[in-house]
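Researcher: Quick sanity check before group meeting.
Model: Go ahead. Protein one:
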Amino acid sequence: MINNELNPKLIRVALYIRVSGEEQKIKGLSLESQRERLEAYAREHKTFSFRKLLEKQNSKMEVIVTFLIILELMKTGKINISQENIFDDIMITSNV
C-alpha cells in the first residue's frame, strides 16, 4: 500500500537539491552556464586537450560538471574525442 503523505526527509532532500541548483546557477556552475562556456571555448579552439581543459577548473564540482558536458556534447555530435594510446591525453575536436 502506498502512503499518500510526503516523507519529511524527502522534502528536505528536494529542497536541498533546488537550493544547490540555484546557488550553482548564480555562481556560474550550472550545467547550462558551463555548457555555454565550453561551447564558446570549442568554437575558439577547434582542437584542445581534455587534461588542459580540466586543469582550468577551480573545484571538483567544476571538473564534474565539465566532464558531464563533454559527454553530452560528444553524444550530440558537437565534439569528437580521440586518444592515441592508453593513458595518453584525450584530444577533443570541435564540430561547432
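Researcher: Fine. The other one?
Model: Protein two, sequence then structure:
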Amino acid sequence: MRYPTISLTKGNWTFLPRRHASGAVGHARKKCEQSVELLINADVFRNEFGGKYILSRAKLSNAADLGFDFVGKWDSVEGVYTMYVYEMK
C-alpha cells in the first residue's frame, strides 16, 4: 500500500515528513550525515506559498541552484537532530 506524501504549510513554514522504507510516513530518529537533493519548485515556494526559509535535517546539495543561501547549522551532542537552515535569496 502506498501512502500519500504529506506537506503542511502555514505562513512561511512547510513541513515535509520523512517517508520510511516501509512506506509509512513518520519521524526519523537517526542523524542524517549525507547531503540530499531538494526537489521543489522554488518559484512556487517563494511566489505562491510566500516561503522564505527551509528547515532541513539534512544538508541540501542543490540549495544554491534553487536560490537559497545557507544560514546555519544547529546541533547538540545529546540531541538526535541536526538542523540546517536556508533562506531564499
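Researcher: One line on it for the slide.
Model: Confidence is low (pLDDT under 50) at residues 1-14.
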